[in-house]
Design goal:
Elements: H1 10-42, H2 53-57, H3 60-67, H4 71-82, E1 85-89, E2 92-95, H5 98-105, E3 112-113, H6 134-145, H7 150-155, H8 157-177, E4 186-187, H9 188-205, H10 211-214, H11 221-235, H12 241-244, H13 263-275, H14 295-305, H15 312-343, H16 345-360, H17 372-376, H18 379-391, E5 399-402, E6 408-410, E7 413-415, E8 420-423, H19 425-428, H20 432-435, H21 451-459, H22 474-491, E9 493-496, E10 504-507, E11 511-514, E12 517-521
Parallel strand pairs: 2-8
Antiparallel strand pairs: 1-2, 3-5, 4-12, 5-8, 6-7, 9-12, 10-11
Helix pairs in contact: 3-11, 8-9, 8-22, 9-15, 13-15, 14-15, 15-18
Bound molecules: protoporphyrin IX containing FE.
Residues 128-129, 141, 321-322, 325-326, 329-330, 333, 394-395, 399, 463-465, 469, 471-474, 476-477 line the site of protoporphyrin IX containing FE.
Length: 523
Amino acid sequence: MGVLKLGDSSPAVFTTILSFAKTHWPTILVTFIVLRGLAKRYFSPLRKYPGPFLASCTRLWKVWSTARGRTHLDHIELHRKYGPVVRIAPNEVSISNPEAARMLLSAGKRFFKTKFYAVFPPPENPDIFTEIREDVHATKKRVANVPYSMAAMQQLSPFIDDTIELFMSKIEEYINHARSPNKKPFDLGDYLHYFAFDVLGEVAFSRNFGFLKEGRDVENAIKTIDKSQTYNGIVGQVPELDYLLRRNPLWKFIPWLSTKNALITRMALEEMGKRQPFTKDTAGLLRTGDGRQDLLASLIQGHLKDPEKFGEGDVFAVAHGAIFAGSDSTASTMQSFFWHILSDRRVYQNIVRELEYAVATGAIPSKGNLNWNQAQGLHYLQACLKEAMRVRPAVGLNITRLVPPEGAQLDGHFFPGGTSVACNGWVLHRDKDVFGQDADIYRPERWLEDEEKAKRMERYMFQFGGGSHLCIGRNLALLEINKVVPRLLRDYRFELARPGRPLKANASFFVVQSGLEVYITKP
Ligand code: HEM
C-alpha cells in the first residue's frame, strides 16, 4: 500500500491517493456520509430545534416514516415528545401551532410549494396540485375554479343522484342476499371508494367508471392509483431521486410501473379524443352526450378563451388530476366518518333520532335524495362530519412550504429563507388550546356547545388545506358527502362487523383506509 509523503511529485501523489481510495473506498464513503450528516446537524441554523437524531442528519428519516405509511401518527408523537417546533430533516421543521400554520398557508405571504409536489405526475405538464411555480399556478387555478364553484356543482347534482341510486341498488342486493343463514359483512369502505370514483367519472368526463356497477376495483385501477401515490409520497421526500427513477428514460421499459395504460388515464384520454377538435361551436361538450356541462367541457371552454395561458395539456392534466386528488380523499373522509359514528352507539343513535325527527317534521324527504340545504339543517350529523374531518383528516402527509428568501417569523421563531416548514392536519387538529383538553377524542358535541368556540375551531381546521392552495374540489366533495351520507343513514341501519377493530390506514399522501366492514339491515 502506498504511503503519502510530502514533497512527492504531483503524478505520484495522485497515484498514491488513487490507490489509497481504491483500497479504502468503503471506509472513505462511510466517513464522508457520517461527516456530511453531522455537518448538516451541527452547522445548520436549525440546530437548536429538537427532533430525532437521524432526522437532523438526513432526509432518510422522512423517507422511512412515509414508507411505513404512518407519517400522520409519527408527527403526533414527535410534537408530544419535542414540543411545537420539531426538526424533521436537515433543512425542515414541523410546526404544531395552528395560528402559525394559517400564516404558513395563507395567500400572499409567499410561502411557496416545495419540490415535493413536482414529483406527482405528469411532470411535463403539471396540474393545479403539482404546479409549484406560484404565478403559473394562479393562472391555471383561475380557469379551473369556474367549474368547481358550488353553483356549477349543483348543476351536476343529478349525476351524483344517479350514482347514489346505483349504490343503493348494491345495498339492496346485499340485504336480499344476506337473508341467507351465512350472513357476510358488506365492505362499506370499498363501496364508498367506488362511489367516490364513479361520481368523479360522471362529473369530470360524463362517464361511469363502472366500479359500483361491478362491485369491484375494475382493472385494479384504484390499486394502481394508490401504488403511484405511495411512490409520490416516498420519493417526494427526496425529489432528486425521481430523476433516477420515474423520470429516468429506462423506467418506461418496466411495464408494471407505467400508469399510461391504467384505466382512469385511458378513459380520460378517450374522453378528450371524443371532444377534439376543440371548437367554439361545440364548446367542449360531448357531441353524443346529454349536453351536460362537465368538468372537461368547462376546462375546454377555459382553454378556448385563452389557449396561451391554458393549453390543451392543461385541460387533460387538470381533469385527470381531479380523479387522483378527489377520490381517495373523499372516500377516506366518509370512511372515517362511518367508522367513528358506528364505533360509538350513543353518537349513532343521536344521528338516527335526528334523521327520524327530520322526516317526521318534513324537514327532509322520507324517500329519495336530500338536497344540500336539507342536509345542512341536520346539525348533529354536520357536527359528526366535522369532527371526523378534525380527528382523521384525509391528508396524512405533511403540507410543506418554503420560507421566502428574506426569511420569516413563525410562532415566534425566525426561519431563514429556503427553510422547509411543514404542518400536518393530524397534529394541528389536536391543539388543546383551540379544540379543548379532550381534543384527542371524537366528540361531535364540541361543535354544538358554544357558537363562538365553534367559530374559533372552524378557523383552525385544515382538512382542505388553505390560502392560495385551498382544495379546489371541496364543494364537490362536500356536496356528494352531504347527499350520500344522510341517505344511507336514513334508509338503512348499520352495525360494525368487528366492533373495536381500527381501520387499516396507510398515509401515502391521503390516508388510504380499509377494513370498514358492516352489517346492514332496513329500519
Ligand atoms: C373530502 C375530500 C377532500 C379533501 C379532504 C381534500 C383535501 C385537500 C387538501 C388538504 C389540499 C391542499 C394540499 C396541499 O396544499 O398540499 C387539497 C388540494 C387540492 N385538492 Fe382536494 N381534497 C378533497 C377533495 C378533492 C376533490 C373532490 C378534488 C377534485 C375533484 C380535489 C382537488 C384538489 C386539487 C386540484 C388541489 C390542489 C389545489 C391547489 O394547490 O391550488 N380535492 N385538497
